[in-house]
Amino acid sequence: LEEAAFQLQQIFRIDISIALNILGIESMRAGHYRVAYTCFKLAADRGYSKAQFNVGLCYEHGRGTEKDLEKAAFYYYHAASSRHPMAQYRYARYLLCHRPENEWDRHQKAVTLLEQAATAGITEAQAYLGVFYMRGLQPKEKRGLKYLLLAAKNGDAQSRYHVGVCYEKGLGVQQNLAEAMKHYRQSAAAGNRNARERLRV
């Protein structure tokens, strides 16, 4: 593997970590998960954030290695520390879903990471934050709607449905049934079952 990475490096004049990550991606596409994991791990150990994220994915999904959420979180954390937006999202989700809720500092860290990922354009983070702010102990409806609208604009049908609910119920915005129906129709057209059911009522 290192020889193949070295040859790739020489051909394209790229860093060895980037070459290993590319080999990992190509191996993953070919279904050679163990080889992919090995390439990602070698690059991750050199501090390459994209490879750290990919190692996290391998551990999260059990591709090329055993499934281990703690190890996945470890690699997501390191990639997130280098401002990798998708790693920020996944590590934040891990903190919120797998850590005690009473740990306020972890909770705040997770929200900060989600906001950074959402600002970087990660639709999943925008959608998650939208629902998070709508359903919290102290809902922040306007902030939640802001993130739901961003995710909906990026094509997330479920977020578009939630925007419809906001307009229907007046959550974070003035109640407007015509606007709610518009969002339900757009969400239903994108395949959202909840929106289709809402339109039948």
Automatic annotation (TrEMBL):
GO biological process, one term: extrinsic apoptotic signaling pathway via death domain receptors
Signal peptide start-end: none
Sequence intervals crossing the membrane: none
InterPro entries in the cross-refs: ISR_Activator, Sel1-like, TPR-like_helical_dom_sf
SUPFAM superfamilies named among the record's database cross-references: HCP-like (SSF81901)
Any GO CC annotation of this UniProt entry: mitochondrion
Entry-linked Pfam families: Sel1 (PF08238)
UniProt-recorded name of the protein: DELE protein
Organism in which the protein naturally occurs: Chroicocephalus maculipennis
Lineage of the species this protein comes from: Eukaryota, Metazoa, Chordata, Craniata, Vertebrata
